[in-house]
């Protein structure tokens, strides 16, 4: 299959946290956030335009909706005809599921749109105003958002071009169809984001058994029969891990200036949380250096089962999670650190699985015995053992220290964000306890 990725995604926790929950709640949060914010758009200033302009925009919207629907169905049919070989059956199932979603979602949106305008909901809007934008979905906008099914189909087929092309097409077409709505003077962002949220939630749940598939995971293992193949695959997974965490970190830097804890900056809880966060980051830096004293330059060449590796099979990842928790706590929020650590663990969990495949091939029964004796992540202190002497790699130790020191940079980032908020240059859009 052309364009097939070498990675087979099967990490259920990562998928549920990021795709099902993370992105869906992001769209819902944007829908709630923008319900009282309507940026001026001269193209939609209907009150200042002749009446025929609204009619022409409605016709353009109808024509564009038909073209998007026809293009989506034609593309799905073309992909079905191109599927060949042993993956053809699974591929056809994937594309048929996506096509069914593409056709069914606008009908569901129409039902929700009508229910949102029924007589029973105005009282609910008064008591829970946040729910109004979440039910303000649009059947027309859903046609454009429905192209997001290509994103999940591309992931299930391991075709990155189809995946990211579908994501871009879904977002662009949803905003374009929302732009041509003629019953308001400005772009109805809550309607666009609410429609994207519902389409995304349905698509991520429908494709879950196809993307997170243990059989495909087992089949991918059989293709890495040699140690060299396992090393090559693990290297690609590590690259993707760094890219994922890099994107995740970049998004956090962008979002953090608009975030603030619920506690006052002079409160005891705020100060204690920040001091605890600083302590966790310091422990993480020292812990990673401690692991490197035992690991040295022997990673992958010999089975390290002493020192921190005698109480946990993955102490480096454990201290990294400790650092992430501390970085979140430096914001003054008790909740942010564990949430960030949970997302990072979802990324690490996939890498740990791949490393286990490689170590099993390299060390065989010795590694199996080690896995049965030592826990995967949480330390068991009663298992501690260490040699009297160690051969230390100063180069590896210096590299580990260099990579860990940037953890402390989160402190000035939070300080800058707090300064921007105090001076009124940046609004607070989200508060967490």
Describe the structure.
The chain has two domains: 12-214, no CATH class; 224-432, Four Helix Bundle (Hemerythrin (Met), subunit A). The model is unreliable at 1-9 and 38-50 (pLDDT under 50). The protein starts with 11 loop residues before the first helix and ends with a strand. It has a two-stranded parallel ribbon. The chain has 433 residues and is mostly helical. The protein has 18 helices and two strands. This is Isoprenylcysteine carboxylmethyltransferase family protein. It holds the Pfam family PEMT. It is found in: Endomembrane system. Its main location: membrane.
Task: Tell me briefly what this model is.
With 433 residues, the protein is mainly alpha-helical.
CATH architecture of the largest domain: Up-down Bundle
How many strands, which pairing sense, and closed or not: the largest β-sheet? 2 strands, parallel
Query: How far apart are the termini?
Result: 48 Å
Count of the domains: 2
Instruction: List the secondary-structure elements in sequence, H or E.
Output: HHHHHHHHHHHHEHHHHHHE
Shape: flat
Assess the beta-strand content as a share of residues.
under 5%
Number of strands: 2
CATH topology of the largest domain: Four Helix Bundle (Hemerythrin (Met), subunit A)
Percentage of residues assigned to helices: 55-70%
Keywords:
single chain; about 425 residues; mainly alpha; Four Helix Bundle (Hemerythrin (Met), subunit A); 2 domains; 18 helices; flat; membrane; transmembrane helix; Isoprenylcysteine carboxylmethyltransferase family protein; Phopholipid_MeTrfase; transmembrane
